[in-house]
């Protein structure tokens, strides 16, 4: 990852701004990937968490992290199409409510394995679609991150 090139592209307006949260900003790199830029220590912690989950997970429920800077300030992830309503995700998993979604074995497994907050997985902004398959795109907000930074 060439951080200087990414910064240059963003400051020149070559990368489309996708959105931001309290801790990170997200830009489309235009090559099938996005960059998540930490705004503060909590953002760095979220980038670090996503990096480690992506590295060790084999569930295919998460968008893959491709690269990360040494200090975790920058994280490169697969770009996903936007989900406009959480019911799109429910339909894919053939459930009718968040309770049914949270009762799915694969959702329970990743929640327990990585200390993910289930309420975060019920937000449409936490999901995207890659190659017709829903994936979690925002998964850095774990119990540990919440307790330490919020």
Task: List the strand order in the largest sheet.
Answer: 1-2-3-5-4
Radius of gyration using CA atoms only: 15 Å
**Tell me, what's the shape?**
globular
Q: What distance separates the N and C termini?
A: 30 Å
Q: State the CATH superfamily name.
A: Phosphorylase Kinase, domain 1
Please give the share of residues in helix. Answer: 40-55%
> What is the residue-averaged pLDDT?
95
- Predict the CATH topology: Phosphorylase Kinase, domain 1
* Biggest β-sheet strands, sense, barrel: 5 strands, antiparallel
How many discrete domains?
A: 1
**What structural class is derived from the secondary structure elements?**
alpha+beta
Shape-level CATH architecture:
2-Layer Sandwich
Strand residue percentage: 15-25%
Report the uncertain regions.
none
The sequence of SSEs as H and E is HEEEHEEEHHHHEEH
- Name of the CATH class: Alpha Beta
Oligomeric form: single chain
Give a written overview of the molecule.
The protein has a five-stranded antiparallel β-sheet with strand order 1-2-3-5-4, sandwiched between helices. The protein has a three-stranded antiparallel β-sheet with strand order 6-7-8, with helices on one face. The protein is an alpha+beta fold and 150 residues long. It is built from seven helices and eight strands, in the order αβββαβββααααββα. 40% of the residues lie in helices and 23% in strands. The chain has helices spanning 3-11, 41-56, 86-93, 98-103, 105-114, 118-121, 143-149; strands at 16-20, 24-28, 33-38, 65-68, 74-78, 81-82, 127-130, 133-136. A hairpin with a 5-residue loop joins strand 4 (65-68) and strand 5 (74-78). The chain has one domain: Phosphorylase Kinase, domain 1, CATH 3.30.200.20.
């Amino acid at each position: 990852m060439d951080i200087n090139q990414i910064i240059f592209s963003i400051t020149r307006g070559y990368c489309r701004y996708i959105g931001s949260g309290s801790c990170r900003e997200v830009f489309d790199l235009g090559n099938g990937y996005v960059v998540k830029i930490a705004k503060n220590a909590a953002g760095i912690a979220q980038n670090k968490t996503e990096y480690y989950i992506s590295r060790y997970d084999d569930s295919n429920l998460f968008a893959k992290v491709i690269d990360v800077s040494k200090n975790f300030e920058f994280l490169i992830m697969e770009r996903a199409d936007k989900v406009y309503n959480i019911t799109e995700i429910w339909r894919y998993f053939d459930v009718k409510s968040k309770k049914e979604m949270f009762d799915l074995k694969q959702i329970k497994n990743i929640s327990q394995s990585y200390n993910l907050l289930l309420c975060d997985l019920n937000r449409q902004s936490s999901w995207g679609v890659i190659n017709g398959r829903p994936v979690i795109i925002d998964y850095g907000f774990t119990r540990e991150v919440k307790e330490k930074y919020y």
